[in-house]
């Protein structure tokens, strides 16, 4: 029996687990190894495709299904298979893109993830509604797709977010993943709900720990048993966390594991 039996830590990547793009500190790596040697489960929660998580498997063992594509896809990297997905209608996504094109001239681009490894991009700058390109782009896609990502200038992103939430919030959620990135996905999906599903279906988990730094991590903090925000998170994001830990540049995951060990 290990002291961390029954614990699952699910960490956001950029700005949380990593101290700079794609790099995990030795302190975090050593702490994760210790956590797992004592029975703990560790996985990632990212807005990116499943393949992105594989960039880390040479330094850490991701020993639980990864939360990917913003929580619309649970993926088992070891078995290379889908555990669970939460999809939305491509036609609803097209309606949102049309609304943005009609009302927000500053938005640059939209990426739509239509399977576990590919996406299509629509440029608001190059194309106009009525030229048929949007329909041509989406027609070959499956009827159900994963999340989409809007690239929005930071000067207007909060206004765009409010407009889309007011107009389409009955079906979709719109969360910022950085100051110019607005993710849109079905309301029944999120990083936190994906971890909640893991706790209910993976077996043997009594305590889930979610760690993040931005708006798309708020559900991760709220739906897990212990929600941590890193010190570099914006104040309005920290307000949703149970606890605040050190900044990502100060080995936040190692600090959390040390905290948990002190409480056992």
Characterization of this structure:
- The chain has helices at 13-17, 26-37, 50-53, 90-103, 133-138, 157-168, 191-202, 218-223, 235-238, 252-263; strands spanning 7-12, 41-45, 66-68, 73-76, 81-85, 88-89, 109-113, 119-123, 144-145, 148-151, 172-178, 181-186, 207-212, 226-229, 243-244.
- The chain is an alpha/beta fold.
- A hairpin with a 2-residue loop joins strand 11 (172-178) and strand 12.
- Helix 2 (26-37) packs parallel to helix 10 (252-263).
- The two termini are 13 Å apart.
- The model has no long low-confidence stretch (mean pLDDT 97).
From the spread of the alpha carbons, the general shape counts as: globular
SSE series = EHHEHEEEEHEEHEEHEEHEHEHEH
Low-confidence stretches: none
Strand content: 25-35%
Number of strands: 15
**What is the helix tally?**
10
Average of pLDDT: 97
Compute the CA-based radius of gyration.
Answer: 19 Å
Please give the largest β-sheet.
5 strands, parallel
CA(first)-CA(last) distance: 13 Å
**Strand order within the widest sheet?**
2-1-13-14-15
Question: What is the helical fraction, as a range of percent?
Answer: 25-40%
**Global structural class:** alpha/beta
């Amino acid at each position: 029996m290990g002291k961390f039996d029954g614990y699952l830590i699910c960490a956001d990547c950029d700005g949380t687990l990593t101290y700079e793009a794609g790099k995990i500190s030795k302190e975090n790596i050593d702490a994760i190894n210790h956590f797992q040697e004592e029975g703990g489960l560790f996985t990632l929660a990212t807005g990116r495709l499943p393949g992105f998580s594989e960039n880390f498997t040479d330094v850490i063992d991701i020993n639980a299904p990864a939360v990917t594509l913003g929580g619309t896809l649970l993926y088992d990297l070891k078995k290379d298979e889908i555990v669970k997905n939460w999809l939305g209608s491509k036609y609803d996504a097209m309606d949102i893109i049309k609304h943005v094109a009609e009302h927000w001239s500053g938005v640059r681009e939209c990426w739509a993830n239509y399977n576990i490894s590919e996406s299509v991009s629509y440029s608001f700058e190059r194309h106009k509604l009525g030229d048929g390109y949007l329909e041509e782009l989406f027609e070959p896609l499956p009827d159900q797709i994963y999340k989409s990502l809007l690239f929005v200038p930071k000067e207007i992103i909060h206004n765009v977010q409010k407009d889309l939430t007011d107009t389409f919030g009955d079906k979709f959620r719109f969360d910022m993943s950085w100051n110019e990135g607005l993710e849109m996905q079905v309301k029944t999906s999120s990083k936190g709900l994906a971890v909640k599903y893991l706790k209910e279906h993976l077996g043997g988990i009594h305590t889930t720990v979610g760690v993040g730094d931005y708006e798309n991590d708020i559900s991760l903090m709220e739906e897990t048993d212990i929600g941590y925000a890193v010190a570099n998170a914006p104040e309005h994001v920290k307000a949703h966390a149970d606890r605040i830990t050190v900044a990502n540049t100060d080995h936040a995951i190692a600090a959390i594991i040390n905290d948990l060990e002190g409480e056992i």
